[in-house]
Amino acid sequence: MDKVFADKLTDIAKVWDEVLDAFFMKANLRSRQILVVGCSTSEVIGQQIGQGSSSEVAEVLLPPLLARVHQLGIFLAVQGCEHINRALVVEEACADHYGLEVVTVLPALHAGGAMTVEAWKSFLKPVMVERIQGHAGIDLGDTFIGMHLRPVAIPIRLSVKEVGEAHITLAYTRPRLIGGPRAMYAELK
Fold first, then answer.
1. Distances in whole angstroms, Cα of residue 2 to Cα of each of 5, 7, 36, 44, 96
2. Residue 134 within any structural domain of the chain
3. Do 44 and 166 meet the contact criterion of CB atoms below 8 Å apart?
4. Domains held by the chain: number
């Protein structure tokens, strides 16, 4: 690895750590809730989505994310690319807890992406699922994770807009407000 790329990875790691600190403070996730992450490592290093998958970037991004996930006791779902129909890597415990249907596909560098490959290697008992309804999400590089979030997604705005060269979008979800003009609602958290 050349020095320029190594320095770039160091900068990415620093920004990512700041993003994660701010995100988890605002997302207010509780134990056993699901965080969906979509990541184009290609976009993070300034290439076109799907054209420069980088295991090195995934190796920088996933460990600090997993550390926070384990600390909070939440489930992580890592979304693959459209070549595997945006299937997600989750822990078997997550699939069991939420009654998710497991599907048969293995993520690969150019069919799923570097983050799904790294998640598959790093999870204790990884399985793939086709659908999930996450409680919050992080999208690096406009990978369109919205299909995997619960219906009412609320954007989380940070001063940081990019990790590396990838646009970042963050959200948490809340229950739907139902009823009419006479309906009462508890304070939302």
1. 6, 9, 32, 17, 43
2. yes
3. yes
4. 1
pLDDT recorded at residue 89: 98
Q: What is the DSSP string of 39-53?
A: E-HHHHTTS-TTSS-
Supply the pLDDT for residue 48: 78
Its pTM surpasses 0.85: yes
Query: 79, 88 in Cβ contact below 8 A?
Result: yes
User: What pLDDT is recorded for position 22?
Assistant: 97
Q: What is the CATH number of the domain that holds 76?
A: 3.40.50.10360
CA dihedral 140, 146, 31, 115 (to 10 degrees): -40
Question: Tokens in use for 86?
Answer: 């945006």
Q: Has residue 189 been placed in a domain?
A: no
Cβ atoms < 10 Å from Cβ of 169: 21
Residues with Cβ within 8 Å of residue 54, at least 6 apart in sequence: 41, 42, 44, 45, 114
Can you list the residues of the chain whose pLDDT is less than 70? 188-189
Instruction: Give tens-digit pLDDT for 139-154.
Output: 999 999 999 999 999 9
The residue range of the domain holding 140 is: 3-174
Residue 161 belongs to some domain of the structure: yes
